[in-house]
Design a protein that fits this description.
This protein has 417 residues and is an all-alpha fold. 80% of the residues lie in helices and 0% in strands.
Length: 417
Amino acid sequence: MSVQPLPLSSATATTPTTRTAMPAGRVVLLIALLIGLQPLSSDLYLPALPALTTGFGASMTQAQLTLTALVLALGVSQLFWGPVSDRFGRRPVLLVGMVAYALASVACAMAPSMDLLIFWRAVQGTAMGAGVVCGRAVVRDLYEPTEGARVMSKAMSGLAVIACTSPPLGGLLSDLFGWRAALTALAVFGLVTLALLLWGFEETIPQKNPQALAPGKLLANWLMVLRHPTFRAFSALTTVSYAGLFTILAASSFVYIQALGWSKTGYGLAMLANSLAYMAGTFLCRRLITRFGVPRSVALAGGVSLIAGTLMGTLALAGVQSGWALLLPQCLFMIGHGVHQPCGQSGAVGPFPQAAGAASAVNGFVTMLMAFAVGSWLGGHMDGSVLPLALGVWFWSAVTALVAWTLVRRHGQSGKR
């Protein structure tokens, strides 16, 4: 059965499309916690990454595998979790996923070797996929696309709070108790989120799809999603914008701490500034959408992204070896990212009210596959200078602007296949 797309210019819905007793504030809080698993799991231990590498006597490439294994497992697992949640509902998938996430986090903290840490990080990413894919799908379950972008931007403001506190907390825990304490904190967060889901989350899926896991139907849904121009436009936006962010995540701790001599706490504060800029971007997103609509808002943010990347790249090529020459353009990049991600994630699932889990899964898979590729490239090109970080962000900011000005402009409000 073909799912008819809903144009992003459709009338705004300020109330959920399903009957749910959950207050709007609770919905936003739970979505923020679920999608916040991703930055928490990557950002909290970033200040400890150089110490972790030294402690295990591992190479920089092995250390970055603890991050790239996480995102690859996250991406692949969403292809499973999305259809499962369409078949059985969001609530059971979320509960199973959060239990597994907490257990994997404990195993990460206790890992006796780098190889086992990489393995358990992959398990952690697999479990995390349940929360991330369902968090995005819940928005489509309850809201029409344009309103969904506003709700997602609110949830991402909450995500930004999580991202703000993660690097400083990780740096503090690492300085006081060692890197294992930072990974233990992930288990605590997982258990708290699990408790809140048990207490306050009600099923949101309008109608479970008994055929969602049938191989033929599953393949048909994936092809339907991939063929839709609106999905391709917004999925491309989230993917390339996240590639720029992942360049920062994978390279910045080594650049700031080892190349520039910043302390772990100082680096944590630098990442805090990035997260605050991202939060500002999510607030800006809601204002821009109200005034200009989604495609034009994304286009404006694309200009911000390009300016940020160009500034960072040109300063690095000019030989400026200063943390501030990286940090200020990074914050500008994060403002643009705070517009691209809510619009992109909501827009990618918007045309598929009956297959939101599958659409969310494909979007997440493509994004994380790109992140894995970026991390793998950086692992072989880090040379002790600021150039891989700066030029990487410049490249992805230019691609982000190109996608915003072409694909999203052309298909962002299209209901046509």
